Amino acid sequence: MYKKYKTLLPIIANWLFISLSVNAQTIFHLQKGDLIFQEACDGGMNSAIKAATQGIEGYNFTHVGIVEQKNNGKYYVIEATHPKVRITPLQTYLHPKNKCTPRSVVGRLKPPYLSLIEPALIQARAKVGKKYDDAFDINNDQYYCSELIYQIFKEANHGQEVFPLQAMTFKSKETGEFPPYWVEHFKKLALPIPEGQPGNNPGDMSRSNLIEIVHYY
Hints:
With about 220 residues, the chain is α+β, with helices and mostly antiparallel strands. The chain has helices at about 1-5, 10-25, 45-50, 90-95, 115-125, 145-155, 180-190, 200-205, and strands spanning about 35-40, 65-70, 75-80, 85-90, 105-110, 165, 200, 210-215. The strands form two sheets. It has a six-stranded antiparallel β-sheet with strand order 4-3-2-1-5-8. It has a two-stranded antiparallel ribbon with strand order 6-7. Helix 5 (about 115-125) packs across helix 6 (about 145-155).
């Protein structure tokens, strides 16, 4: 009996080696400077953003942040969210407490733009603590999520845009009207809805030809 199984040992060992090698090749490794796009659950601003924008493969992204790796080897995400720009532990970003888990997708800058990552992260760190930009105003030194990414890469590129601005729309793709959320939001700010003003959103950024989608959480 022993001799019978002994002849099978090399075959089993070879199968395990191949299996482990294949699995090792499929493990995803996050990198510093990756952009993590998120589609949050419906409600409030998230629903209003989804109504007006669209990302890759039908995703309706509502948020984006940039990956940072600290000296302890752990990953964080620098993000512009209420009430201010902050550094969030990766697992908290992917699985926020007391909230439903958003759908997260990783975009990575293509090789010609990788040199911009470190200077962009320097700019991002300098903006931690800045207020969230409820007015969606590109010129007020406050930042909404994709505006932060736009600005840090522009500054890293010596003032030249990397992710170009586009005319913003707050209108629903389905109805062509402003969702009630945006009407009330800007009414509280005593500001007109900045329809057509320069800006950006996570959905448009996810479709940029400067990045490639490398992972789906």
